[in-house]
Structure formats: C-alpha cells, structure tokens
Amino acid sequence: MKTIALIVVVISVVIIGCQALGNSQSQTDLISQESNVEYNGKYHYHYELSDGSKATQDGVLKTVDAQHDGESIHGKYSFVGEDGKTYVVSYTADENGFQAVGDHLPTPPPTPEWIERSLEYQRLHPYHPPEQKH
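^ that's the sequence the OP posted. Answer follows.
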C-alpha cells in the first residue's frame, strides 16, 4: 500500500513539474508517449516533451517475504533547468523505500572514523540486559 502511495506521489510530482515548466513557457508539446500495463502487474511508461523533459518508469509486482507482496519500481526523469543544464534523476522504489540518485543531488558527508569504530564495537559486543530475579 505504501508503494502505491509512493507511485502516486512520484507521478504527481512529475505532472506538477511538467505543468510548472509549461506555465513558464508559451507552449510545451508532447513529442512521444508510450504506456503498457500487463495483467500480472508489470508496467512501463515513457514520455518526452518538447522542452527537453523526459520520464521513464518500469514496475513489477514481487514477493518481499512469506507474508508480504510489494512492488519494485525503477525509473528516471530529466529536465532542463533555468540555467540551461539538463538534470537527470534515477530512482528505485521498493521495500527499502525511495532512493534517488543524481549528480546534482546532495550527498551526506562521510561517517567519522570514531563513529564507525563505535558501531563496530556495538556490533561485536551487543548489550544483554541482566536477568531479573523475582
């Protein structure tokens, strides 16, 4: 259910982005569009606009574990920014959440060594609470 909501959010963001780009220009035309949905839940869509915007997404239904089914989605979209550069975002959405990758997206700083040592120590020496006597 979370994945379906995520799909709706991603598609909404793309549509709103296209509308915003369309409002800033006099006319944006659809160059190409394809869409395919199969009976087993697998799907594909792609579109390209005259302003340079493109989007592609593929999804499949999958079994996450014995009690849960889910979806796995892979996609990519690109657009031309106000600075004239083309920005590309590739993403995956599955049981691990939404993960976007793009050269222009911020990345976290490296984990300090002392934190890595602390995490390793905790992994090797897990906490075992003392047994309580009644």
